[in-house]
Amino acid sequence: MKPSLKVFLFLSLLFFKSFYSNAQELQLTLSTGHLGKVKGLAITNDAKLLATAGEDAAVKVWNIDDKRLLYSVYPHEVGITALCFSQDNQYLATAGMDGKVKVLHLKSQEVVYEFEDVEGEVFKIKFVGGFLLFITKGGMIYRLDWENKRLAPDGLETKSDLGNFSSLNYSFKMKWLTVGKMEGDIVVWRGYNRPTVTKKGLHADWISAVDYVPSDSLIVTGSWDKTIKIWDINADTLVDQMASPDHTPIIDLKYSSFFEVLVFATQDQKIYFYDVKDGKIADEPRLIRDDFDKMIFTEDTRHVAFSKSDGSISVWYLEVGRSKASVEWKPINGNLVEGEINLSTGAIAFVTTTGKFHSWEPNRHVITKNWNAHTGKATALEYLLKGNRWATTGEDSLVKVWSDHGELIDTLQLLHKGKTIVNIPVMDELGIGTNGGDVILWNREEKTRRNIYQHNGEVVRLVSDDDGDRIASIGRDRRLIVYHLKKNQIELDTVVPALRLNDLAFSEEGDKIVVSGNNGIFAWNTNDWETVDHDVPKNDIVKLDFVAKRGEWILGMRSGRVEVWDKSLSQKVASFDESSIPVVDVIPYIDKGIFFAVRINTTFEIWSIKKEKRLGKIVSSNEGHWVIEHYSGLFDAGNLNMSELYYVYGTETIDFDQLKDKYWEPGLSYEILQGNPLRKVPPLSELSLFPKTNTFEKDGKLYIEVIDRGGGIGGVSLYINNKEVISDVLTEGQKENYEGKEYYTIHLEKVKIHLIPDQENDIAVLTSNKAGTLNGRGIKLKYKGKEIELQAPPILYGVIVGVSDYRGRLLDLKYAAEDAQAMYSTIELGSEKLFGVKNSVVQLLTTDAEEEHLQPNKENIKRAFESISQRASASDILFVFLAGHGAVAENSEGDNDFHFLTKDMSNSDLSDPDIKNNYTINGTELLDWIKEIPISKQVFVVDACHAGSFSTELITSRDYNEEGMKKRALERMRAKTGMFMLSGASSDKVSYESSYLEHGLLTYSLLDYLKRGELDEGRFVDVQDLFAHAVESVPQLASSMSGEQQPEYRVPVGAGSFYIAELPQSVRDSITLSVQKNLISAIYLEDADTWADHLRLSEQVKTYFILKAEEEELTVRYQKNAKGPNTYIIRGKYEVHKNNILLKLHLISENKVVDKWNIKAKDIKDCQEQLFGEIEGYFNSLEE
Predict the structure, then answer these.
(1) CA torsion 41→45→47→51, rounded to 10°?
(2) Which of 1043, 1070, 1097 is the last residue of a domain?
């Protein structure tokens, strides 16, 4: 049927929702751009929100002021063709290639209206006067009364028969509607009481864009005939025209009345800016941009959003001569391809389209690992239980085998790109499928490979049964091939009746094989190869797996739904359809009745099959940052200060830092996956907003307005340079009326000791809602401190405490006092060098001290802090170090708090209030002491192991994990003081201190950096670099001794790092690290012919060194990537002759060979022992 211009309303309007829910939910969001190009843009006229549609079928809504993504939705099963905001900025309309138009409410993200059966692809959509207007490429205009859910009430749906349309624009100022036609005509409606105006033959080809010059009642058009024309509709005259500057068609255009500038885009991907005066276009452009792809302007043309061909997006504020980008977002740097579970550690691993390998291990201290696995796209991942290894393949035509720590162990070169891998453990072989159709078996031990059969085109998926008898594959040729490995023959080769095959799997017993495709699943019995009937409906099923313990199938749909079916595929057991985000993988989790639904947006949802409930989800970023969220609202995060991961509430973004007081639960992943009980918190669905504040300074006073936004007014605190200086503004401030508004005023004289002279100080007011569940972010006000003629140099104040000898023997530690002494000596010397002898005041309190006033009891420690508060100024530096026992117990306010145990404690029982109050220091007390000190640059190191680890009664009485409570308590203190904080987090005494190192692990790592680390300019100690070294090295040290420790490192938001010491080489040389004078930083052993380590000798020698170090004291040990003096590298080449290994070794230090040996060994164990003997002998000789 010939398309005609109709404002066309079907009687079959379908409504997805007949109501609108006002409920808003807190939503975890990863701020990433699109995967691929941006296909459409929309911007609100106040330039607050931007919406983008991408090739990835996602619609993303961005908060321009916060420079963050609010959320991503997938409203259409296929691509988006057009989108727009409503005039009130409450709704977003989208049109898709699925023939549907939808309206979403922006705050709730609910689809409140859906219209089906659009005839043709919509390419322009707009809200006009309460109606939704859109035009299709087939020439149909629809005018929908979407809010009232009925036909247009004025009966003026059909205007005339005008043929095919190519563009549309409505002017809210002029109230004109203009459409451009494929044949080059335009049609203009100027209101229902005026006749339609048609201008035939305005262009020689279809009109791509239309806009207006309202002041002169002119219409501007651009066309594929490579011209732009300005037409006076009233006089019916052509005012001006111009040819495309680059001789390519005009794609889009916009006239700015504010700037009197015409902006247009050409097919050559250039955007031109031309001045327009009295309807005449200037001869030369004002500006040309060749890096933009698409554009969208606000109505006043003061703001514009551009997209680039690489998928990046930017929003610009336009000003004559000073236009600038307000914000820019980058596209996604790759997406997930496939996920796997490490059956030894429980880690979740996945590879990406950028070739990266990521691993996330959900212990009490989450361990993340990532490395570059392939050049280009990684395509498959497989876990190898033997040796705890990983196998990967990619489009670089390589198969690689890795250790769990990212060391490359073996490599196989393929003739074609690798696409899929399967481990066949019984035969100790890897099966590989390629895009060339090859199915290959690789035996790494025997160094053999063989092609066993071939597909006609790419192998999509390759699997094996649990017994290792069969492998099976599907390919782009739509064939299923099953091969019996022991019989060396193909048992089944059949074409599956689907256009696209996605996945396949064997049942646990191997008696059934199931294939999924774009139109459902297909099953066969492996006994007779007869097809199996089933009741699974036809869907595009992208992933399937068999849950062995439950005897059930998991099916993941392209639509986002996940279903669980019984073994016979005759009954659906459970359905999980909360998300429309496409599924990448479904992974059963180690016989726990739990599975992960892996989605294309790097989200891992955790589902309980038995409870039919989503327990939580994990979100991971390209940078390796992560967050895990429980359905109750509890969360854990790798870094509370992440900028790309956060929550969204309506159109407001909320940082983790704002929720941490109530909802942060360190170690949450372990608790969820173990099924442990969790502490109760108010549901996030009941969350209410914190008060808004407006703050300004006038006449030496701060004026603070507090506005309730429905959540009530809880705490209101004043911070200066990230440090809380007034905890209750409502009580300490004076009420004052200013210009009709009520303010709380604070005299700056009251807080002047916290203001740094001659510098800009950050002043912020932080609020919380009445329930205390959500804190404000705190808008910062800049205030310059008082000018002074001569500013005194800063002073470093230090309080260093070490408690080894407690009352009685139960709690005694070996090295806490020595740790404190070692840190004291180094920090004192370094601060004296950096700030001057008179400007270094460091106090040491340890149980080794002879003087009573230097013993680490509560009174002496408190006195040390009080002495600093009486002398310090805002520009000074504070360094605090605590080593000893810590515990978690209730403080005087009834909150769980961290307690540092002083020397007078005899056990870890804190049930007696008198003992707790007199002999421990809780976090709240420490916070009060530090708040009295006006210093803004503060460093806090707490190296405290769990006293509770030695008290069985205390452990069994706890309902929740103590480590999490300790972290939360320390974080509360850090947040209110603005400190740089490093805390050792350990679960047992072995992890805390080592007789081998003669230090606590945390202290050892700090001293190791001060002695051998890469200091700034070789001598300056930067706080962030010092802490970063500890975070990286402590887990390695703990692991080498079969322990576990992961320090926590927190920094104030927006704070810059600073120096705390200057260490010349003489001071660094004087730092003694027990017997650890010599370190092997790397071991490289390889075959002399192939230059590959096919014996994996390097790794086995490293393991031998680590094990020997645990058994006895050595003069040398292995520490990966150690730097500085007395560090060595072992390099060697080996040959295998009959039953012997011939090894030539070099020991290298400072790029010089210091010794060399030849070893002849009968096997690897003999080689390890001889090599170790030679190295140990060399270093023993140095000691003599």
Answers:
(1) -30
(2) 1070
Q: Which two tokens mark 1180?
A: 């023993």
The pLDDT of residue 831 is above 90:
yes
Q: How many CB atoms lie within 10 A of CB 5?
A: 20
Residue 377's identity, in one-letter code, is K
* Sole residue written with tokens 């002849």: 1160
User: Looking at the structure, do residues 1141 and 1000 belong to the same domain, yes or no?
Assistant: no
pLDDT tens digit sequence for 720-743? 888 888 989 999 999 999 989 999
Q: Where are the alpha helices (DSSP H) in 958-1022?
A: 962-977, 989-992, 1001-1012
* Per-residue pLDDT tens digits for 846-857: 999 999 999 999
Is the distance from CB of 498 to CB of 522 less than 8 angstroms?
yes
Please return the burial class of 639, using the count of CB atoms within 10 Å of its CB with bins 0-12, 13-18 and 19+: middle
**Any domain includes 307:** no
Phi then psi for 1026, rounded to 5 degrees?
A: -60, -50
Task: Cite the beta strand spans of 182-335 per DSSP E.
Answer: 186-189, 197-199, 207-213, 218-223, 227-232, 237-243, 250-256, 261-266, 271-277, 280-281, 287-289, 294-297, 303-307, 313-317, 324-329
Give yes or no for a contact between 1030 and 982, defined as CB atoms under 8 angstroms apart.
yes
* 578's tokens: 């909360």
Whose tokens are 């003599």? That residue is 1184
The answer to the question of residue 119 being in a domain is no
Cβ–Cβ < 8 Å for 977, 938 = yes
Residue 913 confidence (pLDDT) above 70: yes
CATH number of the domain at 1098, please: 3.30.160
* pLDDT tens-digit readout, 981-1005: 888 764 443 345 666 677 888 899 9
Task: Give the CA radius of gyration of the chain.
Answer: 35
Q: Which of 6-20, 450-464, 785-799 has the lowest mean pLDDT?
A: 6-20
Side chain identity at residue 250, one-letter code: I
Provide the pLDDT confidence category of residue 958 given band limits of 50, 70 and 90.
very low
DSSP-assigned states of every residue in 1044-1066: -B--EEE--TT----EEEE--HH
Helices (H), 664-718: 668-674
DSSP symbol at 537: P
Is the C-alpha dihedral spanning 412, 415, 421, 423 positive or negative?
Answer: negative
**Residue 243 structure tokens:** 């040819």
Residue with tokens 């490979």: 449
- Sign of the dihedral through C-alpha 343, 346, 352, 357: negative
Complete DSSP assignment for 56-70: TS-EEEEETTTTEEE
The identity of residue 228, as a single letter, is I
Q: Residue 584 belongs to what domain range?
A: 496-624
The set of residues, in sequence order, having a beta carbon less than 8 Å from that of 270 and lying 6+ positions away, is: 245, 246, 288, 289, 290
What residues contact residue 1152 under an 8 Å CB cut-off, 6+ apart? none
Q: Which residue type is seen at 682? A: P
Report the alpha-carbon distance of residue 15 to residue 25 in Å, rounded: 23
396-406 pLDDT, tens per residue?
999 999 988 88
**Angle ∠(433,434,435) on CA atoms, nearest 5:** 140
| Whole-Å CA distances, 1126 to 1079, 1082, 1122, 1123, 1152 | 6, 13, 10, 8, 12
Instruction: For residue 131, give both structure tokens.
Output: 């109606």
Q: Are residues 720 and 737 in the same domain?
A: yes
Query: Strands of 26-30's sheet, edge to edge?
Result: 26-30, 645-649, 652-654
- For 471-525, the DSSP string reads EEEEETT-EEEEEETTTTEEEEEEE-SSS-EEEEEE-TTSSEEEEEETTEEEEEE
- State the pLDDT confidence band at 1074, using cuts at 50, 70 and 90: low
Q: Name the pairing type of β-strands 91-96 and 336-341.
A: unpaired
Residue 1138 has pLDDT above 70, yes or no: yes
Q: Among residues 757, 760, 1021, 975, which one has the least CA distance to residue 875?
A: 757
pTM of the model: 0.69
Q: DSSP string of 549-568?
A: TTTEEEEEETTS-EEEEETT
Task: Look up the CATH number of the domain holding residue 996.
Answer: 3.40.50.1460
